[in-house]
Each structure stands twice: as C-alpha cells, then as structure tokens.
Specification:
448 residues, alpha/beta, seven-stranded mixed beta sheet, 12 strands, 40% helix, globular
Length: 448
C-alpha cells in the first residue's frame, strides 16, 4: 500500500484546510501599489535594500500565514494528513503549476530544488562508453559539478563544454550552439549510431542573469537527436508563456521558491509522457520502486507514483505553490507583475550604470527579463578570490545592508540586480552608493 494514496476521500471533518489564501488573510482589500508600499506584504528588515531576490526568493506574509496554518493542521494529526489528505493538496499543486507552464498534471512532480531535479534526471540515464553530456561555461555550479561527477564515474561519459561569453546576442548564441551540436554529433566514429548525447541548457543563466533562446536551442537538439535537459531555475514566475507542450524539451526543472513566491525549497520537475520511462527512480529511491527481479513484478512503477513518497519530509514548502499562486493572482497575475518588474529592471539597470560610470551588459534588453547585469568599477585584472568575494559581501550586507549578486565574467566584474514588486528606482541609488564603497575597498585591497 502506498503511504500517500488516494484510497479514501476524507470527510469534511477530516479534510485539511485549503492552502489557498482566504479573503480574510488578504483583508478583503485591493493589494498595495507596486513599489515600496509592497513592503507591508513581506518581512524584510526596514533598512534592508533587497535587489537579490533571485538567489533565494522571498516569502510573502500571506503565503507564510497559509503555510503556518497548514503546518499546525499537519501536527494535529500527522498520520491522517500524510496517509490520507496530503495527496489531494499535492495533486492540486501539480495541477495548478502544470497549467501555468503549459503541461499536463501527470507530467509534473514536485522536488526540493532545481539542482535536485537535474541530478535526478542525469542519474537516471544509463550511461555507456562514448556517451556525451554537454554543459556550458556558465552552467550553475552545482549542476556543472554533477556533470563532472558523472564524467568521473564509470562508464565515464565524455563532458563537452559549450563556451558562452557575455555580452552576446541570441543570434550569436544560436549560431554557435548549432555549430557545437553539429561538431559533437559528427564525431565518435563507430559509436555514433549507439551513443546518447544529453545537453543541459539554461533557460535563464544564473550569472550572468541572462535569458537564453532555450526553445530554439531545444529545437536544434531535437533535429540532431540530442536529449535536452532544461535548467529553468529562474524561469517560473519570471518567464511568461513557457508553454512546455509546444517547446517540447525532454526534461525541464524550475524552482518555485524563487520568482513564484512559494516557500523554500520547492521546485517542479517536468517529464513529458514520452520520456517518463527514463526516470526509473527519484532520489532517494522510494518504497514503491518496482524491480524486474521482484517476485510479483508486473512492470515499472508509474512516474508520478514514484515521487509521491520518497521518505519523511516537510510537505509544506511543496504545497505552498497553491498559496503562492493565489497571492500572485491577487496581485494582478503574471503579466501585470512581470510588466512592472521587467520595466524596473531595464530602467534600474541603466540608472545604476550611469551612477557607477559603467554600462549594462545587455543594452538592447534582448536577454533581460527581471534580472539586469551592470558592470562594476573594478579593473578586470583583479580576478575573483575568496578574499575579494568576502570583502564585497561584507561591505554590502554588513556595512550597507543592501545587496545584489556580484560575479566575475569574461574579464570584468558585474552585479546582477533582481527587480521585484517591492523595489523602486531609488533602491538602485542606494545600491550604487554601497557598490561604490565596496568596489573602492576591493581596488585598495588589490594594491596591498
């Protein structure tokens, strides 16, 4: 018997409270205007200037309240919730997030984070000699290391690295990607007919915070017989019109605790029906995994069933998708939210660059959604080091209580600013003063 099963429909007295945000919790009123008035819906230190939502997400008060109510209900009778009620909420969350990304409910399961989802996909491939995994020079660190780990492990699939250097354009990326795929698929001699090639593609790069033409890259992979695994950690809640049924990636994973406002950690893993045979086990392997060596084996376990119960966890973050979607709808919906945040990212980035005396990475805004990249006034010959990184972090976070991500790329230092509904253009001015101070300290430190 599955621990989380649909074997019984609870009576009204047993049912868990919906994780939806009630009218009472939203005070039966219109939401505040976008900008600093939104601070009342979040719990930031009043003196904190937060332009780094992209790293960890930020939990709205109404979503937190919904999570706390659900958590209290779970603790009132953990057995009843886990064994009977949880599946209903889990299915509701999958159904709603599937609709948002243009997928079927049973093509979507929930996992802890995008790195976990990517690792699940990559470790379910049966790797053989001659197989190839394609990553990029800007692949997220944990994912890049997962690729390298698989290359270090028998049967040692070859790791191929696609070079991405910014500034660039979608046209240049696609031209180079098409050539890279052509070259990789044309090599290999006798192994070409039997090997598999798997490409890990960012929908939106973490650093730089740049949108890739991932749908077109998927199409190139498909034409060449290459599997596509999309690291969409920053996509859901930031990228509109994802429509996976039309884009047809082979696998796609996105964090819901970043731009969607769910509770950390929570992500959706999309596996279309045509590829669900690849996923033989989640991480960790659940009790309902079926082996061909089992005495009463009658075929592999269904994809969705595998992910219903992978051990005891706190289900509240996964189920918070429901409250997060209600909150976003109350704010005005995906288009209204992203119209504000995108326009602010563009304007804020240009204003910050002007104040720093530098430039934005993407002046035509082709690669920019709600994260904007601005060059920092640090000479390029000062390379990344733990000491420089620590100096930047401590100056910004401890001395100025303001933050946007910083990184070194393609011979220059940059900051990645995440524009959110609580930000205004004045936040970029506060950040400019903090960054000037931090950069001056870095330059001084490098001269010692």
């Amino acid at each position: 018997m599955d621990v989380m099963s649909d074997m019984k429909t609870p009576s009204s007295s047993e049912s868990a409270p919906s994780t939806l945000i009630t009218d009472a919790e939203l005070d039966k009123r219109a939401p505040p205007s976008f900008g600093h008035a939104m601070h009342e819906l979040f719990e930031f230190d009043p003196s904190y200037t937060n332009l780094n939502h992209g790293s960890y997400g930020s939990l709205p008060k109404p979503v937190r309240v919904a999570c706390e109510k659900l958590s209290a209900h779970i603790e009132a009778n953990p057995d009843r919730f886990v064994r009977i009620e949880c599946i209903r909420h889990w299915t509701e969350a999958r159904t709603r997030v599937a609709k948002l990304i243009g997928a079927e409910t049973d093509e979507c399961v929930l996992v802890n984070n995008t790195s976990h989802g990517i690792a699940t996909v990559l470790r379910n491939f049966e790797w053989n000699e001659g197989d190839i995994i394609i990553g990029t020079t800007t692949t997220y660190g944990a994912v890049s290391r997962a690729i390298r780990y698989l290359g270090d492990t028998p049967s040692h699939p070859q790791v191929s690295t696609f070079s991405l250097n910014f500034p660039t354009s979608h046209a240049e990326i696609l031209e180079n990607w098409r050539e890279h795929i052509r070259r990789v698929t044309s090599e290999g001699g006798d192994l070409k007919q039997t090997r598999k090639i798997v490409a890990v593609i960012d929908a939106i790069v973490s650093n730089p915070g740049a949108r890739l033409p991932w749908k077109e890259m998927v199409a190139i992979c498909k034409d060449a017989g290459v599997w596509s695994v999309i690291d969409a950690a920053h996509s859901i809640g930031q990228e509109l019109d994802i429509n996976l049924s039309e884009a047809k990636p082979d696998f796609w994973v996105s964090n819901c605790h970043k731009w969607l406002f769910a509770k950390r950690g929570c992500a959706v893993l999309y596996v279309p029906r045509r590829n669900q045979h690849v996923i033989k086990s989640p991480i960790p392997t659940p009790h309902n995994y079926r082996s061909s060596e089992d005495e009463y084996y009658n075929g592999p376990q269904k994809f969705v069933k595998l992910f219903e119960w992978t051990g005891t966890i706190d289900y509240v973050p996964l189920l918070s998708i429901n409250a997060a979607l209600d909150f976003r709808q109350w704010l005005g919906g995906e288009y209204k939210i992203n119209e504000y945040t995108h326009n602010l990212a563009i304007a804020g980035g240009k204003h910050l660059a002007s104040l720093l005396g530098t430039s934005v990475m993407d002046p035509d805004s082709e690669l920019t959604l709600n994260m904007v990249n601005v060059e920092l006034p640090i000479p390029g010959d000062i390379k990344y080091s733990d000491e420089v990184n620590s100096l930047l972090m401590n100056t910004l976070l401890v001395e100025w209580n303001a933050y946007a991500a910083h990184y070194y790329h393609n011979g220059k230092w940059w900051t990645r600013c995440s524009a959110q509904v609580w930000n205004e253009i004045s936040d970029f001015e506060v950040l400019a003063d903090a960054l000037k101070d931090a950069c001056e300290k870095v330059v001084k430190f490098a001269k010692q």
